[in-house]
Amino acid sequence: MWRPWSVPRDRWRLMPRDSWGDFLTMLREERTASLAPRPVRALAEEFAQAALALLLPQFAHPARLGAAGVDEEAGRLIALLRAAITPLVPDADVVLSAFLARLPAVRALMHSDAAAIMRGDPAAESEEEVIIAYPGFLATAVHRVSHELYRLEVPLFPRVLSEWAHRETGIDIHPGARIGEAFAIDHGTGVVIGETSEIGARVRMYQGVTLGALAVRKTLANRKRHPTIEDDVVLYANATILGGSTVIGAGSVIGGNVWLTRSVPPRSVVQFSSDVAPRGAPDDGIEFHI
Question: pTM (2 decimals)?
Fold first, then answer.
């Protein structure tokens, strides 16, 4: 089974005395030590597209349209996932079976996300437009898939899936983040959602939002480092919310460019980093659409 590899630090650099032959010897040793599957990035891209093609007819391959195409898409998805995870896990068939059992729930979440984006964006004319054209939907849909593999403790592959979506959309969602139903990202460029983030239902966020950690020490690797966003919260553009103990209470609205490292109670309005007021006050004035 695949294990992360490392090379002694002093082998990363060639000293002036090293010859081309020494360099090639070092590369041979490094490649021998690395048991990671070489095509994992290409497999991730194909698998992400195959998952979308199976679960959403808008992504179906032109050669696999119609009812008969469903079985072909399913077979392709299974073959790609088996090829990707066989070198990574002790029993690929167990993981594959568990993953397939979760796909109906994943598809339902995708549709709840599309509906939420449609409801929250006056410019969206249909859910089909959202599914086909919106980067926030694409990033979230791929996350729904990668998160299930993360929960099944598949190493490496979920992260590569997320990085494919990141490259396609500019939205960076770690596969470990827990996200509730009806999640809506509008515009989306520059959104960053860290590994231990917890996001409730019906949350809406705009471009540039960061759910991050207060510190990046490796000793914090197995602790909650990222914030909790409760149900029905709106996070406007470029809001930065940091810290594993930071909780944004249900029904709150966080204004653009706000920097928060502390919790706010439910139904709060935060227009400035030091200004927390009850939502619904006569002068809160913070409901707008871009």
Answer: 0.85
